[in-house]
Structures are given as C-alpha cells and as structure tokens.
From TrEMBL:
GO biological process entries: protein import into peroxisome matrix
Main subcellular location of this protein, as a coarse class: cytoplasm
CDD domains linked to this entry: WD40
InterPro entries documented for this protein: PEX7, WD40/YVTN_repeat-like_dom_sf, WD40_PAC1, WD40_repeat_CS, WD40_repeat_dom_sf, WD40_rpt
Family: Belongs to the WD repeat peroxin-7 family.
Compartments where located: Cytoplasm, Cytosol; Peroxisome matrix
Keyword terms, alphabetized: Cytoplasm, Peroxisome, Protein transport, Repeat, Transport, WD repeat
Organism field: Oceanites oceanicus
The protein's name: Peroxin-7
Annotated Gene Ontology cellular component terms: cytosol; peroxisomal matrix
Listed GO MF terms: peroxisome matrix targeting signal-2 binding
First and last residues of every WD repeat: 24-47, 58-92, 102-137, 145-181, 189-231
Keyword Phosphoprotein tagged: no
Amino acid sequence: VLSHGQISSLFQFSFDWNDGLFDVTWSENNEHVLITSSGDGSLQIWDTAKTEGPLQVYKEHTQEVYSVDWSQTRGEQLVVSGSWDQTAKLWDPAVGKSLCTFKGHEGVIYSTIWSPHIPGCFASASGDQTLRVWDVKAPGVKLVVPAHQAEILSCDWCKYDENLLVTGAVDCSLKGWDLRNIRQPVFILLGHSYAIRRVKFSPFHATLLASCSYDFTVRFWDFSKPNPLLETVEHHTEFTCGLDLSLHNRGQV
C-alpha cells in the first residue's frame, strides 16, 4: 500500500490541452513518455520530466481521435491511432508525420489495439459493427469480422492466444473471436444492461477478462466456466468508461 507521501509524489504535475482527451498510452521504451489523443484530431507526446508542454503534436486526423496504443512487441516502436474520421494511422514517435493511413471502416473507429504477439499487427473496432485486423506491412485490411449487429466500442487481444480477441458492443454483449474461424464466436458473455465501453483480457489468466459499461458496473468473467460471470462491482455512480488490469499485481484493476 502506498503511503500518503508516495501518492502525493505521483501527482506532481498535470498536462493541459485545449480539447477533450479520449485515450492515453505509455511508451514501451521510456518510462517518462506518454501519448494522448484528443477531440481536435491531434495526438500529443508528453514527457513527465518536462512539464511545460507537449514534446510534439501530430495533427492529421480530421475528427476526434478516440484511441491510441503503443506497440508491445520487441524490436519496434510504433503507435496506432483510431479516429472518428474512419481511419487508423501508424506513427513512429521519432518521425514528425504518420507512416501510413489505414482505410476501410465505414463508421467511426472506437478502439485500436496492437497484438501482444504478432509484430506489426493491430485490431480495430468500429461503429460499422465490424472488428478488423490489419498488418502494417501490407496495404488493406487483413481480416473483417462482422462481430455484432451494433456499434463495437472496444476490443482486446488475449495475452495467451495470438488468435483470440474479444469485442464489447452497444448490444450489451461480449464476444470472443478465433481469427482462424470467424463464422461463430468462441464465447458470448451476457449480463451488462447498457453498452460495454471497454473490455480487457487479464495479463495473468488465459480465460479471465474484465469489462465496464454505461450501466455503471465493472464485471469480471471467466469464459471457460459454465457460469462465466465471476463478479459484478457496483461502486461507480456514473458511466464507467475505462479500466485496465495491473501487469504487476494479479488482483489489481
């Protein structure tokens, strides 16, 4: 448990931007660097050791940038962003402009997530009701999954199976997808009563995941069990828009 002094030392600074910030990702190679994405179509690179302003601002998207993620595989330092302009963009933080733009979605992009296993591979989830998988080395979409009959607000990769992804949608359901056979979902998890805003696989358990929703709840699931809903946490009093699972503490969310 952190002492009050340790907690205070964590919050020595804040960064200000002139528009709403929708997502944030930490650098995978520098503990002081992070990237935010905002409603004015821009990405901002910040250094916690230099609090006077962003190191760099990328403004190429023409609408809100709802998602940003830093690649997790070794040997590459790439960032992917997803926007309401229906495009995803690839960035190298050392380069002042995007490396590539990915087009194909027919609705706003809500989520862009790198594969933790396959270098240069990321997934995107969209209001066009599809999950799509992309390869940065090849133009065009690699795979299109018609995952829900509703807007998909979130997706995530399983940390233990390179072919398994989960989607969360406005239809209140979570669905698991095996990329080798997309005709039917591997699992469907029902229980939320409003749109699912974010879903995350556990870094420690292959079949465990967590979701949060506009129904104010956070729910924990094990899709390998006959009754997959493990727990419903109802401590929030407003829309629950984001969550993540600690990489260091098995029980911390």
